[in-house]
Specification:
about 575 residues; mainly alpha; about 75% helix
Length: about 575
């Protein structure tokens, strides 16, 4: 066996294991170790290469950025079960009811809102499928249209910040989560507009497929309807502002933003609970107001776009005002949690959310560890150079590379979910994209738009599985699969738009020199050393991680040069 065939054999062996059906995390680790032992036996690299493995696994476990995953997952699990989706869909359905396709518009808009506050496809698809699909069937919606719009609106979650996919992509690309969120704003808006435009065109071409709600079905009008819409939307928008706004403005790390989102999710669950006492609801409302005021003070303090007098006043009062606000917030939160523990339904809700979070977080860590084992051995046999040569020699230069990558990811999404693609494929593509001069933030958002399709196309689209699981028996599986195809095409149109108009992503990104958490190793190397006066604990930890990464990279380089 020659050295040149080791990398293709490793890649092929991994695909075979996954097609057979073995768990991806264990397949990655097993293939990596198996070929690692072969490589040592044949003298392709030394045993010392595998000595970098413990440091890399420890680096994964100690990565602060990955703490955002359980926080965002917990937030989504809470909001999935608290009844917020039901309130939003009911109010928006009543609002758009008089219009042809009104229920479809409502599903798209609510899907976008839920996507921003839950971050999970399962939560959006299941909630909207249970509530809106029977109503659409009752009032004569075309079955394929109904199932397609529900599945597609749930997958918007993958692109709308603060998306869990964007956190993972930022970590794997070595870029700022805040920049990734900012870059995804434009494509997210375009995706929602594309979906709404498709419904508008269908309402003209095939009006019989999406009738308006009859007058007897519209039970709310006037101020009661507006009040219900506001009650469903305003708390959600506040939570989005707290999580996304503070991250984008650099006021919080993604982990801190996720923690605020988890707390805010509990508060929203309390506000929407029918079993909570008036005292508990007041406490939740006070805690929510305190969180908003704290975020506003931090946002206004020293803000460059405000008049100097206002910014200076906010800065002067920030420290004095935040202390009592934090006290009020914690008192309200303690009262909320104490009462939530007493109420059986809310206690069960929090328990189920915690269990779901534990399962997903454990899966992510195991996939990361497995991909680290595979990636280390793959680099040891010059697999990264093989991939680089393969992709840079494609005809068409950058355009050819982008076309190939998007087709490749689209194909892999038939068999792998976005976690597996992000942890296995993205580390192989990122160095090539960087060498070709492609902006990695733009590249990450582009891949995020493409990865939406992994939930939508047969045979393993999870959004379709979720919908099949909760759909009535009279809904045919063929209707669910055929109904998804137009929406997959719309998602691919978005990919084409992002490629054709890169400013849709880059115009939202701050071009300043500041580096947010989750930046690449090259940027981390510029952080102050632990001996620098005034260096924070975060800076010291970042410096230590950078030193470990540099040491591991030097070891690999030395081994490769000694061959």
């Amino acid at each position: 066996m020659t050295r040149e065939v080791m990398a293709p054999l490793m890649f092929g062996g991994l695909i075979i294991f996954m097609l057979i059906g073995y768990p991806v995390a264990f397949s990655l680790a097993a293939v990596g170790l198996f070929f690692g032992f072969i490589g040592i036996e044949l003298g392709f690299f030394q045993t010392a290469l595998l000595q970098a493995l413990p440091e890399r696994v420890f680096g994964i476990i100690s990565n602060d950025l990955l703490l955002a995953i359980p926080f965002f997952t917990f937030m989504g699990a809470i909001l999935e079960r608290c009844g917020l989706a039901e309130d939003l869909l009911d109010s928006m359905g009543q609002l758009f009811g008089p219009v042809r396709g009104g229920l479809a518009y409502a599903v798209i808009i609510v899907g976008a809102i839920l996507g921003a506050i839950t971050g999970t496809v399962a939560a959006s698809v299941i909630a909207m499928g249970i509530i809106s699909l029977p109503i659409m069937m009752r009032y004569g919606y075309n079955m394929r249209l109904a199932t397609g719009v529900i599945a597609a609106s749930g997958t918007i979650t993958q692109l709308i910040p603060p998306s869990l996919v964007l956190v993972v992509l930022a970590d794997q690309l070595g870029r700022s989560v805040g920049d990734m969120y900012a870059g995804a704003i434009g494509p997210s808006i375009v995706q929602v507009l594309l979906f709404c435009a498709y419904i508008a065109i269908l309402s003209i071409v095939r009006p019989q497929d999406m009738p308006a709600l009859p007058p007897e079905a519209r039970t709310l009008t006037g101020w009661p309807l507006i009040r219900k819409c506001l009650w469903g939307m305003v708390p959600s928008i506040v939570l989005i502002f707290l999580v996304l706004g503070t991250i984008l403005m650099g006021l919080a790390t993604p982990t801190e933003g996720g923690a605020m989102g988890a707390v805010g999710a509990i508060v929203l669950a309390v506000l929407h609970s029918q079993n909570f006492s008036t005292r508990g609801k007041y406490a939740a409302f006070v805690a929510l107001v305190a969180m908003v005021l704290i975020a506003l003070l931090s946002l206004l303090a020293g803000a460059p776009w405000l008049p100097a007098a206002i910014a200076d006043a906010a800065t002067a009062t920030q420290g004095f005002a935040e202390k009592p606000l934090f006290v009020v917030f914690y008192i309200g939160l303690v009262l909320v949690l104490l009462e939530a523990v007493i109420i059986t339904r809310l206690r069960g809700l929090i328990t189920e959310a915690a269990q779901s979070t534990m399962r997903i977080s454990s899966m992510v860590i195991f996939i990361l560890v497995g991909s680290t084992v595979f990636g280390l051995v793959f680099r040891g046999v010059d697999g990264d150079l093989w991939i680089e040569h393969l992709l840079t020699s494609l005809p068409g230069g950058v355009v050819g590379f982008l076309i190939f990558v998007n087709l490749f990811v689209f194909f892999l999404a038939f068999f792998l979910d976005y976690f597996e693609i992000a942890f296995i494929i993205i580390p192989l593509l990122a160095p090539v994209a960087d060498k070709l001069g492609i902006d990695l933030i733009w590249f990450g958002v582009l891949l995020g738009a493409n990865l939406q399709t992994s939930f939508m196309h047969p045979p393993f689209g999870f959004a379709l599985f979720y919908l099949r699981g909760i759909a009535p028996k009279e809904v045919k599986s063929s209707d669910i699969y055929w109904g998804a195809i137009p929406w997959v095409v719309l998602q691919l149109i978005l990919v084409s738009i992002v490629i054709a108009f890169p400013g849709l992503v880059t115009s939202f990104i701050d071009k300043g020199p500041t580096a947010a958490p989750g930046t690449s190793i090259e940027i981390q190397m510029q952080t102050p050393s632990p001996d620098t006066p005034g260096a924070t604990d975060a800076e010291k930890a970042t410096h230590e991680r950078s030193e470990e990464d540099n040491a591991a990279a030097d070891l690999e380089k030395a081994i490769r040069n000694s061959k």
